[in-house]
Amino acid sequence: MSDFFNTSIGYMKKNILITGGAGFIGSHVVRLFVQKYPEYGIYNLDALTYAGNLENLKDIDQSPNYHFLKINILDADALDAAFDAHGITDVVHLAAESHVDRSIVSPLDFVYTNVIGTVNLLNTARKKWAADYSKHRFYHISTDEVYGSLGAEGFFLETTAYDPNSPYSASKAASDHFVRAYRETYHMQTVVSNCSNNYGPYHFPEKLIPLFINNIIEEKPLPVYGDGLYTRDWLFVKDHALAIDLIFHQGVDGETYNIGGFNEWKNIDLVKLLCAQMDEKLGRAKGYSEKLITYVKDRPGHDRRYAIDATKINKELGWKPTVTFEQGLSETIDWYLSNKEWLQNVTSGAYQNYYNGMYQNR
Ligand code: NAD
Ligand code: TYD
User: Fold this and answer.
1) From CA 333, how far away is CA 272, in angstroms rounded?
2) Residues with CB under 6 A from ligand 2
3) Fold annotation for 13-202+234-262+306-324
4) Ligand 1: residue whose CA is nearest its atom 33
5) Most informative mutation of 150, 208, 222 for ligand 2 (most atoms within 8 A of CB)
6) Which atom of ligand 2 is nearest to the CA of 197?
7) For 220-251, what is each residue's pLDDT tens digit?
8) Whose CA is nearest to atom 29 of ligand 1?
9) 204, 232, 297, 306: residue to mutate for ligand 2 pocket, most atoms within 8 A of CB
10) For the chain, what are the domain ranges?
11) What's the CA angle centered on 204, arms 83 and 167, to 5 degrees?
């Protein structure tokens, strides 16, 4: 039995369940926690869907404080058993279906994992921690997309009303509401953060930046949706992981924190910067990759602009991004260029069917 239960000496070792730890952001969070907190037990719970990849963690998977649990958050019995077997004290919940385009094709997958899966996890935590909720924290990782779309002006604040437009953002909004409800109804200790678009190593190449890096390497068309003037606020994934560490340890119970890069880019400007950096790194002529840009049919319900006001986390917890976008993008491209095998592994097989299905009619 875990020393979690040895409260007679007033000591409770943290055994943290990080869900979705084999995915993009989760793998950075798992790595950070495993390396920074050798005294914690870190339990990476992941169903290993198409987006989950244990290769993302091969540099730390032999660490004595790291453990992997192949569990689907839809399996409530398996969650109960995992909490019992490992004395889980806290949860950092990242597991989700995360791609807007997929949510347009298969909304129910998003309801199952993002809504029902989150409620399953809340139910388990509620049961297992009932003796004293003040000793445990349930940290739910969410997105700025729950706030809907901005016009040319303004920013999302923690107090901005939810106004989701895609099945993805609607499912994340629903899960955020359930976390709030479990706090208000059962007095569980919860904290939520809503972050802007991440980029960096290990990002699955269905999202804009890694997809376009892959297509530039392969000299394939770069499919820009609509007029290309949609705006996103981009944050380097390692800075998101640092914010998650800070909020997990120092965030105030019941609070929400917005996390953003103070870094807005119109898609077309970002794509041109990416092309320029890649041409230089690949020794191609200036302007070569820009010729691959192809305007395609727009995404339905496409949110025009996201922009986070991250003043609260900056002022209250002292967090700010550590790298500029140019630095983060350069590091990201370098990572993809030196990890072609990773890219080849994830773009073989099922990925080709996804890609052909998603882009054939655009
Ligand atoms: P991702 O798609 O790369 O990874 C998701 C992980 O969850 C995968 O490892 C997958 O195997 C796992 N998973 C999916 N369904 C599961 C299930 N039913 N049971 C157990 N595991 C399951 O996602 P990401 O981009 O790393 O996002 C992680 C979290 O951060 C999500 O909750 C997402 O909503 C949120 N978020 C993402 C971004 C972004 O830009 N990517 C921005 C803000 C917030
Ligand atoms: P994406 O990376 O899917 O993130 P999100 O939809 O969660 O913001 O897309 C980022 C932006 O890039 C968004 O405005 C849609 C656009 N986009 C394209 O123009 N072409 C593409 O092939 C993809 C995947 C995205």
Assistant:
1) 14
2) 100, 197, 207-208, 211, 223-225, 230, 232, 267, 299
3) Rossmann fold (3.40.50)
4) 98
5) 208
6) 8
7) 999 999 999 999 999 999 999 999 999 999 99
8) 94
9) 232
10) 13-202+234-262+306-324
11) 75
Which amino acid does the sequence have at 225?
Answer: Y
Catalytic: which of 43, 139, 168, 306? 168
Active site residue 162: no
Rounded distance, CA 37 to CA 110, Å? 32
Reference 134, options 90, 80, 193; nearest CA is 90
- Tens of pLDDT, residue by residue over 283-304, are 999 999 999 999 999 999 999 9
